[in-house]
Amino acid sequence: MGVYLSTPKTDKVSEDGENDKLKFGLSSMQGWRATMEDAHSALLDLDNDTAFFGVFDGHGGKVVAKFCAKYLHREVLHTEAYAAGDLGAAVHRAYLRMDEMMRGQRGWRELQALGDKINQFTGIIEGLIWSPKASDSNDRHDDWAFEEGPHSDFTGPNCGSTACVALVRNRQLVVANAGDSRCVISRNGQAYNLSRDHKPELEAERERIQSAGGYIKMGRVNGSLNLSRAIDMELKQNKFLSPDKQILTANPDINIVELCDDDEFIVLACDGIWDCMSSQQLVDFIREHINTEESLSAVCERVLDRCLAPSTAGEGCDNMTMILVQFKKPFAQVKDASGAEQLTGDAGCSETHGVEENGFDKQI
């Protein structure tokens, strides 16, 4: 049986939510895989003006994906860039922060608590024994690398995760990605990729990997990973290289889009979906069902069922997670620097960069 079950687990974890600007639905399913290694975040109120959505596809285990789902949005909020209004810089810093946080005593304890039941129990107990202030650890921000204890020299977990997130603030959409999960926008029914799948064969990825002393074998970095960016400790321990120059890097691509009234929805999904449907096929499928299903999560569930393979031969055997975010029209009014109100939605769309599935930029 290996990494697959004899029959797929088709029960789904689904959720819906909305405010005056956005409506979202999500669903995840374990499928044929022996374990569920995807995780997700969906927050309409990261602050009063900002929503946060993210999908995280684990490899080698589930704990890093769960760690990112728990902490990435919190780190975005804690950055100086966020306080200054620079969402792109804030989320960029938060990605690199994930790797930093998973090293050391507190990182070990948090990862143990997110693991299986035995590890969760031992991790919490040992953490309490060696860290008298563990009860208020969630309120402390900068102590991750400085806590002393039996695991102070912990170098990080032996698994990792992709991370694809989207922040929406008024008419600004900020997409960050590391790995092969993907964000797609539907603009008047046309699908545009807002993230690039980070695969080793891409020229920029191959150049970084080889410059750092790595190699690509059978489409895998050092014969191991079939993606070239991830939140992960593996292949990034060279102390003479900056985080963005390592063989494997968590350094995300950032794409900032000015939304307009032609924009209908965005989709964030792990590669279990994209292995089975192209970006345009998924957008077409959603548009076919979005007005007939009772909820957006029901649309997501339809997609998961559509992608599930009938057997373990071929595509459709991976874990699957998908978030569908629909924009409400017109976009809300916001105040400019002088305090005057300006309409943030209009009929015209300014040019922004999309990403072709083969990795080349195109205009949207």
How would you characterize this protein structure?
The protein has 364 residues and is an alpha+beta fold. The protein has a single domain, classed as Phosphatase 2c, domain 1 (4-Layer Sandwich). It is 26% helix and 31% strand. The strands form five sheets. Strands 3, 4, 5, 6, 7, 12 and 13 form a seven-stranded antiparallel beta sheet that branches. α4 packs antiparallel against α5. It is globular. It starts with a strand and ends with a strand. About 7% of the residues have low confidence.
Topology:
Blueprint: E1 4-18, E2 22-33, E3 38-47, E4 50-59, H1 63-78, H2 80-83, H3 87-101, H4 105-113, H5 117-130, E5 160-161, E6 163-169, E7 172-178, E8 182-187, E9 190-193, H6 203-211, E10 216-217, E11 220-221, E12 231-232, E13 253-258, E14 263-269, H7 271-274, H8 279-289, H9 296-307, E15 320-327, E16 333-335, E17 341-343, E18 353-355, E19 361-363
Antiparallel strand pairs: 1-2, 2-15, 3-4, 4-5, 4-6, 5-12, 6-7, 7-13, 8-9, 8-14, 10-11, 14-15, 16-17, 18-19
